[in-house]
Amino acid sequence: xxxxxxxxxxALPPLSVPGTSATHLGIxxxxxxxxxxxxxxxxxxxxxxxxxxxxxxxxAPPTPAFWLWIWxxxxxxxxxxxxxxxxxxxxxxxxxxxTSLSVGAAHTTYLYIYNQDTLYPTSQSFFSIRLPAM
Length: 134
Prior knowledge:
By secondary structure, the chain is mainly β. Helices cover 4% and strands 31% of the residues. The protein contains one helix and seven strands. The strands form two sheets. Strands 1-2-3-4 form a four-stranded antiparallel β-sheet, with no helix packed on it. It has a three-stranded antiparallel β-sheet with strand order 5-6-7, with no helix packed on it.
């Protein structure tokens, strides 16, 4: 949900990818919120979107890709990074991530992401991502 005044609330739209809807937003994990109000989340592949229920039932469980999405409240739209994180993805590990934000002297925002997958300890990763200016 989003609000400009704290009294009137509206639902955020689903990610702009195939297969999303008001009940299937395409978001796998909310990560953090920047000082300027942008919401950072992992979500569906921007090209393939979400599999339909019949596709999901017929195929093996999909291995998630970690695509970073940003909800920009000023533009009222989702933006996506051009490539997913270079991390070996494991199904069911959508909540294996910890994040922290840092703002530099020139108002540059960095997102630090750490994977703490206890089932696959050899695949732990740490990322520093410079976020685009709003």
